[in-house]
Amino acid sequence: MRGAVTPSDIASSTAHGRPSAPSRHLPGEEGVWVLIFGDMTVFAVLFGVYLYYRAGQPQLFERSQSHLNQAFGAVNTLVLLTSSLLVVTAVRAVRAGAPRLARRLVYGAMTCGAIFVVNKAIEYGQKISHGLVPSSNQFFMYFYVMTGLHLLHVVLGMALLGLMAHLTRRATLTGREQGYLEGAGCFWHMVDVLWIVIFALVYLVK
Questions:
Q1: Using CA of residue 123, residue 128, residue 134, residue 137, what is the dihedral sign?
Q2: How confident is the model at residue 196 (pLDDT cuts 50, 70, 90)?
Q3: C-alpha closest to that of 206 among 51, 69, 75
Q4: Which end of the chain is more exposed for a tag (fewer CB within 10 A), N or C?
Q5: C-alpha–C-alpha distance, residues 141 and 159, integer Å
Q6: In angstroms, how far is the first alpha carbon of the chain from the final one?
Q7: What pTM does this model have?
Q8: Are 53 and 203 in contact (CB under 8 A)?
Q9: Helices of type H across the chain
Q10: Quick check: 203 pLDDT over 80?
């Protein structure tokens, strides 16, 4: 009968008349996210322990906190935020087919990471020269543990950025290689987020 709509017509209209919804996927490899969530859990526990002991000795922690140079923390925060912006832009450049630009952006992010390491080494040197070491009191024990563990993550993150730079030398990336690229970027963003929390807790919170 003319004018009747059949099930095949509906299926054809759905398939050809409407654009399919864009597929969504979790960036990076699944193993990277296991590592990220594991690291964040460890740091969350460490932050909780730090706050617990700070609540028990507020005067000691505030007095010790006054010996920190907030300028170091602020500069390192700006450096890591800049590096994360560069990494995000690099991943977008790869997706847009501009690997050369992406590689330059990744090198910029690695430079930011190197600046962070140098600043942290200078800060450690100043503290140690004034006799402020992990054994000084509980505050400085947690200061060195948290910032030192984070510093190791920065170094590891820079190695992953090196992997990103290597991948941008290829004209095209396979799905797995794209996952490696995105996963490395996600790990670097985690390093940035962790530092923001550490900066707030250790340098700013009274």
A1: negative
A2: very high
A3: 51
A4: N
A5: 27
A6: 79
A7: 0.83
A8: no
A9: 7-17, 30-56, 58-65, 70-95, 99-129, 138-167, 175-198
A10: yes
